[in-house]
Amino acid sequence: MNEDRKENDNDLRKITVYDEDGNELLISVKDWRERVLPDQLKANFNNPDSLYTLIVMSLHDGFYPEILEATEVLLKIDSDKERSHTVRSILLMKVDKLDDAEEVLKNYIKEFSATGVILTNLAKIYDERNNVVESEKILWEALTLDPNQDNGLEWWGAIHRDKGGEKGFYNAIRRAASIEGSWRPQLWLARVCLEKGNLQVATNYYIDILKIARNESEVLMQISGDLGKHGHFNEALKLIYPLYHPENHIPEVGFNLLQCLLEKKDYNEGEYLLQKLIDLKNPILTAKLKYFFDEFEKLKNNEMA
Fold it and tell me: Does the structural domain 1-113 have CATH classification 1.25.40?
């Protein structure tokens, strides 16, 4: 009786969704699962990008059985075979079908060859089976193929932090940083340097990273964010501002730079950059941009007073 009540309560819980115009709506879990989601999935059975987005959202919200058919469809229609096989295997893991999940990933490897993302998810299956040795072996192989994948590197670091504390974590990330083409491990090593007060070594890391990953939004965001967090506003602006293009990079990079300019009380440059973000005409950014607009106005008014 209590379990039935708990299930019913969950069905009545409201979740936030968006209509075609981007308006925010509240709908019960029951209505979404039984009425809205099935229709939306079927409506996108010929649109792999939209279908993938719906599947990922459903995974995040815990709608696992509801998207089993959709992930099968995605395998057939998606030209991005890595993402379709990955998301299918993740779902199968969620519903405790480890053997089926492993088969999906091994089929990908057989047809297309291994990738870092595919192997990282294969390592998770072995970890679920408590085969730790094989799991770590596969995870390292995944990193050698792609040392810049966020999930794999984070997991690698966590494993070695559990084994050897911060020293174990640092040595594990340094090992990943030795892989040719890597830049994400170096971002983490630079963060450690900043935390220890060693700005010069961190800066050296950043200079090397930007030689190979200057167009990566994540790189620009983390460098500007980490430097700003530690009060190195000039360094953040010097390294990242010349590389930042609002139309090409995620807005969080711009917010970090605006915050640095705010901390420096440079309202002239701040308003110039702010206008570039306003020109994007993205309604999702409105509240954040208004905050910076007001703060730069305060700076101007205080200077004129």
Answer: yes
